[in-house]
Design a protein that fits this description.
The complex is a heterodimer of chains A (485) and B (484). Chain A is an alpha/beta fold and 485 residues long. Chain A has a domain of 331 residues: Alpha-Beta Complex (Amidase signature (AS) enzymes). Chain A is 38% helix and 13% strand. Chain B is α+β, with helices and mostly antiparallel strands. Chain B has 3 domains: 287 residues, no CATH class; 101 residues, no CATH class; 59 residues, Orthogonal Bundle (Arc Repressor Mutant, subunit A). Chain B is 40% helix and 21% strand. In chain B, strands 2-6-7-10-1-11-12-13-14 form a 9-stranded mixed beta sheet. The termini of chain B are far apart. The chains are: A alpha/beta (485), B alpha+beta (484). At the A-B interface, helix 10 and helix 11 of A face loops of B.
Chain lengths: 485, 484
């Protein structure tokens, strides 16, 4: 593996800007490694080798002429295939959008372009981000680079696998119910989901609008923070985007004393569930390491955690049923040639192009919003969501961050099913609009990585990065290690 | 006297008069090329997100304030879901509970009797696009989709079922349209689809408390169409009941050409819209200052204006009614007065000119007063010429014709055509002498005591002076001469 690919992004960018390394060489290194690893991992739905090389050349020429260096100048990045890049295809891993070409740039893409990043390719995902294994993709299954018989997690499994295997230094994902942090945990990298409203959703294909956030994957916390600094910030095109001032999330990220000042809460409810024994062991070690660093570890009580799977399913599916309704075959996307009238055309276009998981969620969401079910299902779930949020707010009176394993189980083999409580501690962050970050913790006896998860209060993102970075330093996890492919 | 009484409730949709759409930045301009006014939001491309147009909220709050509504500070939106190609998201963003405005009222006037109609709510929502099934007279075997109108802001106003005749519905809509036009919050043009009205009609035996079976009628494209549709529907429902039949709850379409309603769908076919809160638009509270600022901006409304016209200008009820019937006419009237020195003397003549001559001309050429070829300034000049005695009332009519045809100012016309009134006594005396000499019969009759005979001599003087002699001076001189 080329040394360029092992560099931290900031280092790589600095070297590109000072002409020590050509952007072209960085991009070439990526594709060289992709050619080797991709046949086994299948992380990408589409690769833009020619275009990327051309872009890299432009960057190099531009820099030669003394132009200002962007925050990510010439650095290759992977983009989940549900984010709009003008003029590029955007499938959301669905057959429905097989031939769709984005007419505009997502806000995060505009920002990445301004920063000089180079879009290497589009990463695989669960269809419309519905799933936790990347197996519902209409196009291909992505493998976990640490064990190619196992799932990488999902829905942003392609981005996670691409970064974990070293094909790109970092990538964008989206997280509606753990879709960045769960695959990051499974693949042994850092995965971050911001506070709801920190990063514009404009141009990210909607799954469940009240949970969706774009977030970042990287090999380590500092790179994830750097990428976040580029894409975060107010955007009038997304009304839920908060008008916060620009922050450099890498600023003071190596603060050595941060853990000494903090209380870290571990949910009592963690022990209500069956946890993989190695995960339990390494998590316990992690707690002790944090204590040794001077943090006070306290037990917190959030009884509503037990409702997370149910209320997430009800609200998410309700929003899905409305958001996916626009895919009707009328204006763009797949249109069945077999329709005999309008309703039949709708039905067949959707039946022939949407996958099983998508259909299941549409049906369930339609059911919970029906006039007869609204109050006992959707409305009730919203009430429980408020209950959960209030309990978490209460918990934050006792602690600064909530700490848990990223997942309660290790990644399963293809076709096997994870228990639904596997990532409830991640989903809680989506339900409450809170920031969360998965940090690799340890390798288990089978050589698979396992991760831990910190969840902060709303808009404590900058501090969250510092805490994650502190843990990264004491975890003992070797971030320079790559899977052998 | 019918043994049934009619119960009518209205649902009125008015396109909000804003430059851009309610949830995106596209223009609302009417009559643009199909799909010229569209973007990634209003065509519902993946990843697009609605953004709320503040001006649309302002328009609704303003309308609500003018109609005595309670303004709900909490601004929330909901998704109303149904599949149809003219709704690109397959849901419409609307408001469920609470609407922006609750509990308003409007006083209508039918046959000189006033009646207060309670209005349930006004809420904000987005319009749908348009499906085109024919080009000219050619029917297509496919449909074309024009999304120019998709996501244009609408205010939906719903009344209580308190209207009890087609005339009351007509009066309500006319009055509503007038007020909304005064507010400039909608153009309320039913022909352009900027105002649409669905009607709920039921009948019940006189004295019965509960409501009869409700029928909803759609597809009226004029206010008189609404009246006619209700009248037809009342008759139809009466016939059904009289012949021992039963009414069914249904939606019917008004077919204007045939003058009948036709069943469209029954209650069984009713849709479950699966409303739920719109997650893309976070609920927010309207600041008190926002509402109070709008209250201060409210223009004078027709009833108040009418009263003022009567009090300040000494106009009759009839004239004041006409002049305040639209904001454009009222503004034109006041602009004209503004340009005149002696407003008191001018008030009545200006009112007359607008309500008779100008009104007739505008009606004939089917244009609004705002497009009148006679500007308010020029009308003021004309009235000023009359009041100063520079031209006679009769000449003024000729001048007005020219003004309307050629958009000229009256002074130019009077000068060019030499139409100025002759008030010079010696000049008039000369013509009077001629006329007396040429009218021996009339002179004899006058002297014999038939005073009316003077009219013929006056007429002759006016004819000789081509209408330019000042009639008062002519009268005075003739009387002096004949009585001498």
């Amino acid at each position: 593996m080329n040394e360029i690919l092992k560099m931290k992004v900031k280092e790589l960018k600095t070297k590109i800007c000072s002409d020590e390394i050509k952007s072209e060489d960085a991009v070439k290194a990526c594709f060289e490694h992709i050619r080797k690893a991709e046949p086994k991992v299948k992380a990408f739905l589409k690769l833009n080798e020619d275009h990327s090389l051309k872009q890299a050349e432009e960057v190099d020429n531009k820099l030669k002429s003394g132009a200002k260096c962007g925050l990510l100048e010439g650095v290759p990045i992977g983009i989940k295939d549900n984010i709009m890049v003008k003029g590029e295809s955007m499938t959301s891993a669905s057959k429905y959008l097989e031939n769709y070409v984005s007419p505009y740039d997502a806000t995060v893409i505009e920002k990445l372009k301004d920063a000089g990043a180079i879009f290497v390719g589009r990463t695989n995902m669960d269809e419309f981000a519905m799933g936790g294994s990347t197996e519902t993709s209409a196009y291909q299954k992505t493998a976990n680079p640490w064990d190619i018989e196992r799932i990488p997690g999902g829905s942003s499994g392609g981005s996670a696998a691409a970064v974990a295997s070293g094909m790109v230094p970092f990538a964008l994902g989206s997280d509606t119910g753990g879709s960045i942090r769960q695959p990051a945990g499974f693949c042994g990298i850092v995965g971050y989901k911001p506070s709801y409203g920190l990063i514009s959703r404009y141009g990210a294909c909607a799954l469940a609008s009240s949970f969706d956030q774009i977030g970042t994957f990287a090999k380590d916390v500092t790179d994830a923070a750097l990428l976040t600094s580029v894409i975060a910030g107010k955007d009038y095109r997304d009304p839920v985007c908060e008008p916060n001032e620009w922050i450099d999330y890498t600023n003071d990220i190596d603060n050595p004393d941060i853990l000494k000042t903090l209380k870290i809460g571990v949910p009592k409810q963690l022990f209500d569930y069956k946890i993989d024994s190695e995960i339990a062991k390494y998590f316990n070690d992690a707690v002790n390491k944090i204590k040794l660093e001077g943090a006070e570890v306290v037990e917190i009580d959030v009884p509503a955690y037990k409702y997370v799977p149910a209320l997430y399913k009800v609200i998410m599916c309700a929003e899905v049923s409305a958001n996916i309704a626009t895919f009707d075959g009328i204006r763009y996307g797949y249109r069945s040639p077999n329709g005999i009238n309008l309703n039949d055309e709708y039905a067949k276009s959707r039946a022939e192009s949407l996958g099983y998981e998508v259909k299941k969620r549409i049906l369930f969401g339609t059911y919970v919003l029906g006039a007869k079910n609204y109050h006992r299902c959707y409305h009730q779930a919203q009430k429980v969501r408020t209950l959960l949020i209030n309990q978490i707010i209460d918990a934050y009176k006792k602690c600064d961050f909530i700490f848990s394993p990223a997942t309660l189980q290790m990644p399963v083999k293809f076709g096997e099913i994870l228990p639904e409580e596997c990532d409830i501690f991640l989903i809680a962050a989506n339900l409450a609009g809170l920031p969360g970050i998965t940090v690799p913790c340890s390798f288990t006896s089978t050589g698979m990585p396992m991760g831990v998860h910190f969840m902060g209060a709303r808009f404590s993102d900058a501090k969250l990065f510092k805490v994650a970075r502190s843990f990264e330093k004491i975890s003992g996890f070797d971030t320079s290690k790559y899977p052998v492919l | 006297m019918s043994k049934y009484e009619t119960v009518v409730g209205l649902e009125v949709h008015m396109q909000i008069n804003t430059k851009s759409k309610v949830f995106c930045e596209c223009s609302t301009q009417f009559g643009a090329e199909p799909n010229a006014n569209t973007c990634v939001v209003c065509t519902s491309q993946p990843g697009a997100i609605p953004i709320l147009n503040k001006k649309a909220v302002e328009a609704i709050v303003k309308t609500g304030l003018a109609l005595g509504f309670t303004i709900n500070k909490q601004c929330t939106f909901a998704r109303k879901q149904y599949f149809y190609p003219d709704v690109p998201k397959n849901y419409q963003i609307t408001q469920s509970e609470p609407p922006l405005c609750s509990k308003g009222k409007l006083t209508i006037n039918v046959d000189g009797k006033e009646k207060l109609i309670n209005i349930t709510r006004i809420h904000l929502e987005e319009d749908a696009g348009k499906l085109v099934h024919e080009i000219g007279s050619r029917k297509l075997d496919y449909s074309l989709l024009d999304l120019n109108r998709a996501s244009v802001g609408l205010m939906e106003l719903v009344t209580e079922p308190e209207l009890s005749s087609p005339q009351e519905a007509l009066s309500f809509l006319t009055e509503l349209k007038n007020i909304v036009e005064y507010l400039c919050t909608s153009e309320c043009n039913m022909e352009e689809g900027k105002m649409r009205c669905d009607v709920n009609v039921s009948i019940r035996p006189v004295g019965q408390k509960g409501l009869g079976t409700r029928v909803e009628i759609k597809n009226m494209n004029s206010i008189s169409g609404v009246r006619d549709a209700i009248a037809y529907e009342v008759e139809r429902q009466t016939e059904v009941l009289e012949s021992g039949g039963k009414l069914i709850q249904e939606t019917r379409l008004w077919e204007a050409e045939e003058g009948i309603t036709k069943s469209m769908r029954t209650k069984e076919g009713a849709l479950d819209y699966r409303y739920f809160p719109e997650p893309d638009l976070v609920p927010f509270d309207l600041p008190d200052s926002f509402i109070e600022d709008l209250r201060k901006q409210l223009p004078e409304l027709p009833k108040v204006k009418k009263k003022r016209f009567i009090n300040d200008y000494g106009l009759s009820e009839y004239d004041a009614d006409y002049l305040t019937s639209t904001r454009m006419i009222a503004d034109y009237y006041e602009e004209t007065l503004e340009a005149l020195q002696d407003k008191k003397a001018a008030a009545k003549p200006v009112a007359n000119w607008i309500s008779t001559e100008l009104n007739a001309k505008l009606n004939a050429s089917k244009i609004d007063i705002s497009e009148s070829p006679v500007s308010s300034k020029n009308l003021a000049k004309l009235v000023s010429l009359i009041l100063s005695g520079a031209i006679s009332g009769k000449i003024a009519k000729t001048v007005f014709e020219e003004m309307y045809e050629k958009s000229l100012d009256p002074e130019t016309i009077v000068k060019e055509k030499g139409l100025a009134q002759i008030s010079d006594e010696s000049a008039i005396m000369k013509i009077c002498d001629e006329a007396i000499a040429e009218s021996p019969k009339a002179v004899a009759e006058f002297k014999a005591g038939k005073e009316r005979a003077i009219g013929a001599i006056v007429g002759l003087v006016m004819k000789k002076s081509k209408g330019q002699a000042n009639p008062q001076i002519v009268n005075k001189i003739l009387l002096e001469k004949l009585k001498a």
